[in-house]
Write a structure and sequence with these properties.
The chain is an alpha+beta fold. Among the domains are: 100 residues, 2-Layer Sandwich (Beta-Lactamase), CATH 3.30.450; 159 residues, Histidine kinase-like ATPase, C-terminal domain (Heat Shock Protein 90). Helix content is 49%, strand content 21%. It has a 7-stranded antiparallel β-sheet with strand order 8-7-6-12-11-10-9. It is rod-shaped. The N terminus is likely disordered. It binds adenosine-5'-diphosphate. Adenosine-5'-diphosphate binds next to helix 16 and helix 18.
Length: 742
């Protein structure tokens, strides 16, 4: 499994925050560069578009405004064109020209002109003779009267004198005020005899222009700016004039007697893609878009301007808006990128997490499989309990040990189902002690009850159960099955007991033969000494008789000593009565010697034991000794029978085959153990004396066996019976009061 090593951040590196990530994102990604490029293009394009749009707007406005202003200008310029013609038709005017000195005519003419001029609304209406001398004028009675003024150098006079309609804009020679002059010839008999001219003020137009935000001006055919909203520009030339033109203007005094050519204060920049030009004024640092509206009928050029600052402002506004939009775009892109990055990181993190979970799950599965294998291979039972004693875990070995499934045990509180019913108090005590944390470190031995009813001996070793946080959450016990060991111990004990019993049986046998042997001698000696004493008494040999009686007494004492030793032996082996099973006594006797002896005699052993144990109150060893004795007697009886048959050359065929039958039964509170053979049986003379001490029919017999056996059985409150068996043979029966079933 990979080991996760935490990334180490160098001390000089600032912590990686969102902005660092943002910078990284901005720095390193192509899409972001594209977005930035788009943003720059957007800003530039917006500026360009706004400039173009604003220029178009401005040009449109200028064009429309030019049309309107041209219309107005034309209206003003032509409104009074009729007036000189009309006045020229007046007979009074012709009369004046014919008689310039006639005072009354002149007065009438002055009055006429004054009246017409006032009604028409023109500035001045006046009449000149063929020499340009003003004979009458509407302002005849004002200080700036034109009367007697000569205007022959004025173009409009010259034009009219030649029969043409004159029009001229210039500064008034008399008043010094600019105005538009229109003239018409006065004929007399087809000959021009004078000129009528009207002067019209253009100031209202200029006043209108002054209302406009940007300059408007009007240039004559020579490019001299003669009318406009910016006074300092007046009478300046928009193009260089040749000497002829300068002289002509000065001659005409068109723009005053002191006029001299002087260029306008701007530089013209041609714009190929624009309908006009741009005027750059270095002094005021202004630039104007200039739209020229030619007025060919008047010979003038009207120029309207718009401060290009508006365009620049529109461009700047567009830039600002586009920059904002680009900012938003970049921010949006940044947000999108951060979001994508975070989603990517989340996806990556999720993948890594899933990978780690998979690895962890795999490792856990491995560990679980390993643990499971380990647990399954364990012979030691494991049982975990919580602090209240509830079983929270058992392994397979534990389940096998007690015969319950884990699902049956987990969740159980004491008393647990495998507690042995005979040892509940001890279980409770052990459980409480363990839960109190006082379990003996060397472990507790417990007898459990397997589900199948068998006993299970175990050793419990209990320790604290600590969880991953170090908290004490319960108790873990390892359980070692010591049943086999226990059984081995019991077996050993039984074997030892058996050995002891064999020893004792052998000892009893030995004791009996020793008794016989040792008593034989003193008894034989007693018989001899008694016979000798009787002979000596008959012979009257008192001294020798005394010796014989002394010897007789010694032998009697010796016999008494032998009997005393037997008594001491008996005292050393006091009767130990306890509940015993007759069936078990049969088994034990067989195991001890009987089966081996039967095999030696070639006699089969048959058992007919009761299904249930037959408990009696007895000394187990003595009881077994009785059974053993009866069994051996039966084998010997059948051996005797066999010998007799052999002696009769096999003529007598036994009705039943030889066998040793051991049977246990119960009847009305009496337990019975019968030893049956197919020997010669018990003839009446033998049957009467069977239990007498020292009665024997065998050459090597002592005749004490049955006597002792009966004493033993009777000492246990029972009786030993003997009778002939049906079909031949003998039947010996031990009857003892049966104990109630345990
Ligand atoms: P011993 O075996 O030393 O003779 P016992 O007291 O055991 O002494 O037996 C006494 C006598 O009872 C035997 O000698 C034998 O004659 C007779 N006896 C005992 N058991 C049987 C038997 N199963 N069948 C026939 N006779 C028997």
């Amino acid at each position: 499994m990979d080991v996760m090593v935490p990334a180490v951040t160098p001390a000089s590196t600032p912590p990686a925050g969102p902005w660092v990530r943002a910078r990284t994102a901005l720095r390193c990604t192509g899409p972001m560069a594209a977005v930035l490029g788009v943003a720059v293009l957007l800003v530039l394009g917006a500026g360009e578009w706004a400039t173009r749009n604003e220029l178009d707007n401005q040009w449109d406005n200028l064009r429309r405004s030019g049309e309107v202003q041209a219309l107005a200008l034309r209206g003003v310029a032509t409104r009074y064109s009729y007036l000189p013609f009309t006045a020229a038709q007046q007979p009074l005017v012709a009369a004046l020209l014919r008689n310039p000195d006639a005072r009354s005519v002149r007065d009438a003419a002055n009055t006429y002109l004054q009246t017409v001029n006032a009604n028409a609304g023109s500035d001045t209406l006046y009449v000149m003779d063929a020499n340009g001398l003003t004979l009458a004028s509407s302002n005849w009675n004002t200080p700036s009267s034109f009367v007697d003024q000569n205007y022959r150098n004025r173009p409009y006079f010259r034009d009219a004198l030649q029969g043409l309609a004159g029009r001229f804009y210039g500064v008034g020679k008399t008043t010094g005020e600019p105005g538009l002059f229109a003239s018409a010839p006065v004929y007399d008999d087809g000959k021009v005899i004078g000129v009528v001219a009207v002067k019209v003020q253009m100031q209202p137009i200029v006043d209108t222009w002054a209302q406009l935000r940007d300059p408007v001006f009007l240039a004559d055919e020579r490019g001299i700016l003669f009318l406009g909203s910016v006074a300092p520009w007046l009478y300046k030339t928009t193009r260089p004039l040749n000497a002829q033109e300068v002289l002509q203007v000065q001659h005409d005094e068109q723009y005053g007697a002191r006029w001299a050519p002087e260029p306008v204060p701007w530089q013209v920049r041609q714009r190929d893609d624009q309908p006009g030009v741009e005027l750059a004024l270095p002094d005021s640092r202004k630039n104007y878009l200039a739209f020229e509206e030619p007025l060919p009928d008047l010979g003038w050029t009207l120029t309207l301007t718009a401060d290009s600052k508006v365009v620049a402002q529109a461009r700047q506004q567009a830039w600002v808006l586009a920059t904002l939009a680009s900012g938003l775009l970049v921010l949006g892109a940044l947000y999108w990128q951060l979001r994508e990055r975070r989603l990517q990181e989340n996806r990556q993190a999720r993948i890594e997490l899933e990978q780690r979970v998979l690895e962890r799950t795999h490792a856990l599965q491995q560990a679980q499989a390993f643990r499971q294998s380990m647990e399954d291979s364990l012979l030691v039972g494991m049982r975990a309990r919580d602090l209240e004693g509830r079983i929270v875990y058992v392994n397979a070995a534990m389940c096998d040990m007690v015969g319950y499934a884990a699902s049956e045990l987990i969740g159980c509180l004491p008393p647990y189902p495998y507690w042995h019913p005979d040892e509940l108090d001890r279980h409770w005590n052990d459980s409480d002690t363990a839960l109190a944390g006082k379990a003996a470190p060397q472990g507790n031995e417990n007898r459990l009850r397997h589900r199948n009813g068998s006993d299970v001996y175990t050793m419990f070793y209990t320790a604290r159960l600590i969880d991953g946080d170090g908290r004490h959450i319960g108790w873990m016990s390892s359980v070692v099955d010591i049943t086999a060991q226990k059984r081995a111990e019991e077996h050993q004990q039984k074997r030892e007991a058996q050995l002891q019993r064999v020893q004792r049986v052998i000892t009893v046998g030995e004791m009996a033969s020793t008794l016989a042997h040792e008593l034989n001698q003193p008894l034989a000696a007693l018989v001899n000494y008694a016979a000798a004493a009787r002979s000596l008494a008959t012979q009257g040999k008192t001294a020798l008789l005394n010796d014989s009686l002394a010897a007789l007494s010694t032998q009697a004492l010796r016999a008494a000593d032998i009997v005393g030793r037997i008594r001491r032996w008996v005292r050393q082996h006091p009767e130990a009565r306890e509940p015993c099973d007759l069936n078990a006594a049969v088994d034990q006797s067989l195991d001890l010697l009987l089966r081996a002896e039967a095999r030696r005699h070639g006699v089969p052993v048959r058992l007919d034991l009761s299904q249930t144990p037959l408990h009696v109150h007895a000394d187990r060893v003595l009881l077994e000794q009785v059974v053993l004795n009866l069994g051996l007697n039966a084998l010997q009886a059948m051996q005797t029978m066999h010998a007799m048959q052999m002696a009769s050359k096999g003529l007598h065929i036994a009705a039943h085959p030889h066998e040793l039958l051991l049977r246990t039964t119960t009847d009305t509170g009496q337990a019975s153990l019968q030893v049956l053979d197919r020997g010669p049986g018990l003839p009446p003379e033998i049957a009467e004396r069977l239990f007498e001490p020292f009665f024997t029919t065998r050459s090597d017999g002592l005749g004490l066996g049955l006597n002792i056996c009966r004493s033993i059985v009777e000492s246990m409150g029972g009786e030993l019976l003997a009778r002939n068996r049906e079909g031949g043979g003998a039947l010996f029966e031990i009857r003892l009061p049966q104990l109630p079933t345990l």
